[in-house]
Amino acid sequence: MARKAAGKPPEEILLDWKREQASLKARVVDRDTEAWQRDPAFSGLQRVGGVDVSFVKDDSGSACASLVVLSYPELEVLYEDCRMVTLTAPYVSGFLAFRELPFLVDAVQQLRQREPRLMPQVLFVDGNGVLHHRGFGVACHLGVLTDLPCIGVAKKLLQVDGLENNALHKEKIQLLKAGGDSFPLMGGSGTVLGRALRSHDHSTKPLYVSVGHKISLEAAVRLTHSCCKFRIPEPVRQADIRSRDYIRRTQEVQGVPAPPSGRSKEAQRPKACPQGVSEEPAENQNSEEQRPETRML
DNA sequence: GCGACAG
DNA sequence: ATCTTGTCGC
């Protein structure tokens, strides 16, 4: 029904993408720009957002993009937007943004237009920020295109610029004893690209936090820890849970036998939700043509 | 041929 | 990302 995004892009496309990244990279602000970011208790921070994209098992072209907004510090879901999308680009390490970002940018723009009061003051992104092959990961990309503070949170270390998940690295992880403990990730050039963070007391595997846009690494790490009820920061975790649940419900409606779901009780209803799941695809789902490239001026 | 490989 | 059951612990 929706096949695309297969194979690896031609070298010419990759060069275009690299030029795009190099160009937008100049706009990244890797320091605190908001008052709440320097406040010890983050007072003034009221809404944190999270984005994620989940995939349909046997269809490399279909996915669900989600944007959620949570209250801070309560971390209760205030807004949820899940939408089925058709992926154009394949996954290529180092170019994640060109696969997932167009839909997330659209979601942010829709929120900005329809519910500006719910706009998050910071966005947690599933993936890296400046901890990237060319210093411009998906979190930076989303930050620059939306002008929102963004934090990159990766579940695995991207082995770039000399960083390696080797014995020494694992030793450092062993030294992280309590939630909030972290150590710097130094690139070959001597620059700190991010920090490995033990997100809470009962989590052994660290998170790799890096600056996306308009926030310092120190504030990003501190806020990430502050948003972790479990290993994954609640905004991203909720976006993940809800996008996967949306796919599951969509599959059911279309007659696909329900897989032995372990849990889906986590998704309670938010105060605001653009649309629900209906068998009839929303009429205006494609009213706006899909952009092949990620732009927004 | 071998190792790497965010999601 | 997704494929997957039980299991150990609070």
From TrEMBL:
Coiled coil: none annotated. Residues 249-297 are annotated as: Disordered. It is found in: Cytoplasm. Keywords: Cytoplasm, Endonuclease, Hydrolase, Nuclease. InterPro entries: Endonuclease-V. The keyword Hydrolase applies. Its main location: cytoplasm. Residues 288-297 have a biased composition (Basic and acidic residues). GO terms for molecular function: endonuclease activity. This is Endonuclease V isoform X3. It comes from Bos indicus. The lineage of its organism: Eukaryota, Metazoa, Chordata, Craniata, Vertebrata. The gene is ENDOV.
